[in-house]
Target: Glycerophosphodiester phosphodiesterase family protein
Amino acid sequence: MSKAISPAFRPEVHGHRGCRGLLPENTLPAFLHALEQGVDVLELDVVISADNQVVVSHEPWLNPTICLGPAGERIPAEKPPRFNLYHMPYHSIRECDCGVLQHPDFPEQVSQPAFKPLLSEVLATVEAATRQLGRMPVKYSIEIKSSPADDGLFHPVPAEFLRLVLTEISSVGVLARAQLLCFDARILRLAHAQIPDLATCFLIEDELPWSQHLDQLGFVPTTLGPAFQSVTLAAVQQLRAAYPTLKLVPWTVNLPQDMRRLIALRVDGITTDYPNRLIAVLGE
Model:
């Protein structure tokens, strides 16, 4: 069973890339461990392979910091990246280990052999594990890694990218518990136009006022996802006054003192590489 947390007000626990601080990011072991830790939401990223498979990966290429090549070789850091996933069929992507190299920024991470799974595989595996654990179903925050400069180079154009992702989510039957995240407003506008009730999260990381981003988006999403450093009392008060229904879920919060500050500001969720730390803080 997952750990019990007080039913009093608390933000949702969003496991960033599963639990990147503990296990290799965006892998089945990371998602299953986050589920066992007691997260409310699993956050993950998706890209598209050459054969139009929806692959769970933060970068649309093999990151040389955490991945080995198809033959088990170390990958040099080059620009453009040597292995563009949008140009690789999924069976080749799956041969590449992205877990045995420990991420240098996460000394607690336990490295182990792992591959980049398909989105459908992650959803089906987590749903089965949830039933086995006898815990409440989790939500899914699925970030579409899109940008105008990369159309046709690292991913399809927005309409096709969105179609592929929504097809996978719908086929597993979790659309009602899924939220699409994106820095690219084009994706979110398309999603909102096609499925107005679909949960959406607009991600931002610059220093512009949040209201300016929302005005440019053209509709009010379900959630705003700013970098946590920009979350101040004044910014939260202004957001609540202007958009009373909008949820606030900052990222990526890894230190207990930052978690406590955000909890005091009554954010709706916290995205973290260390869900175990956040759950411990919530239990204080």
Notes: The chain has one domain: 12-282.
